[in-house]
Integrase
Amino acid sequence: MFSLIQSLPGFKLYLITRSYSPITIHNYLTSLVIFANFLNNPPVNQITQADILNFFEYLRYNHRSESTIQVYWKIIRSYFNWASDEFHLQRPDNIPMPQPAPAPVYPFSVEEIHKLTKACKTLRDKAIILLLLDTGLRVSESARLTIKDVDLETGTIHVRPWRTGKKSRPRIVKLGNSSRRALWTYIASRNLDNNNAPLIATRDEKPLDRYAIGNIIERIAKRAGVLNCHPHRFRHTFAIFYLRNGGDIFTLQELLGHASLDMVRLYLRLSSTDLEQTHRRASPVDNLRL
């Protein structure tokens, strides 16, 4: 029987045939090597449920978060999805998924949004900020957009599925007037004759990946003096402002591309709390001391 590490090339091939991204494959294999080293690289058919639970406790002892342990749980589950068929094993991974506490969600304030837009030095800077804020797109989704995906006349963006479609569901999202103007100005400044060109690009029209866009946002935030500014915070802000302004959770779920309502319900709770706090500060009756 193969040892865990000896089996990894076969698992890698399985991931490739399932259209997993190179980054995901690298992360899966690296995590499984850590798991194998913890167990002293046993034969695959000798791994037990107790081994997996002990590994999770080892991660907790080393101050790994429940979110990180959940990622390892998913990777180990994926591995045994393959290994149980490949080696005809009885699966040892029938373990409930660790449940991390929801990460805190902090939308940008109106003041922070104004600071970010004022700190934009280029047309591309402003296009990125308004695109993410007005659509709630994941930064990886915005990085994959091409010119032909955007219809500025109708204010619609066609988000295409990525690989398996699990993380990036196909959908239509909308742009407001200010964002449409910012994108039109940015696109027009590039004198393009190719609709397949990336929507967000380098000066020599090469596509920017999510890390490059993240670096641009980091530089804008530094100039603006806005702390904890990362691409996903724009998505949180879009969701909470959408609900605060009267949007419904089912449309928001569709716009965000979520498979379930779990995250959307969190946004709803946050927006409701936000409205309650605003009313306490602005209540006409309370402020008039009637």
